[in-house]
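Final report, section 2: Outcomes. Of the targets proposed, GntR family transcriptional regulator of vanillate catabolism is the one most frequently requested by collaborating groups, and we therefore present its record in full.
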Amino acid sequence: MNVYIDPDGREAGDVGGSQSLRAQLRLRELILAGALAPGARIAEVALVERIGVSRTPIRAALLRLEQEGLLQALPGGGYAVRVFSEREVADAIELRGTLEGLSARLAAERGAPAEALAQAGAALDEIDAVLRHSALDDAQWQRYVAANELFHHLLHGMAGSAVVARELERVVRLPFASPSAFVVQQAHAPQARDMLIVAQDQHRQVLDAIARREGARAEAILREHARIAQRNLREAMAAPLPGRAPGVRLVVPEATLPEPAAEATAAPRRRGRPRKDAAVP
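The predicted structure is given below as tokens.
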């Protein structure tokens, strides 16, 4: 079982936007579910038939998913499903931990709204209710993921900083960087529930630190909290390839990552007269 919480679950303001959003969400789902193979070229016509929208929203969705990092633009046009190195994913998780730590410190120093603290506490109460079960079935895992995502979302807004909240929104959209991206990969591991109990204790501690206006403590706890996601990544990668969840198959060890085509990563060449400092052949 694999669960991904969509960060874009908001309504579009017009029909065209709704179609583009629908195409984007469905295409992301297909990629993370393994329906589109890593490195596979994306065929627009096939997506039109599969998703049931016209080519215009499909193209908008492809562009957006390239910006998110799930797709790679090809030199001759079109897109392919990206393959990620384990280091890239680890760096994205580290970046989320750094930004969440900053957000928690600012929230503590500036004073978080009482309503936000209460809502975050209610989300943690929901997690406590899940963890009272000695064994978690699929429904309980989904409850955990939903409450965990809500808690982190509330944390992101406590600092009262539109800049930090915007950057956090961007980083959690990076492939596999969301707070619950690898949690469910370990759902059937013997130590899975114990790991969640440790993470929940960190949730409670950071909320307590913010309420007590202890900025340095809040930041340190969330930086350490990201280490659990790093461990989940390592354990997911250690599983035999056939047993990995489909989305994790997009992640490969650094040594096996294919080199990207130079044309796909190079900056577009400008036309016109050369710069004065350009080398002359």
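Confidence is low (pLDDT under 50) at residues 1-15, 260-281.
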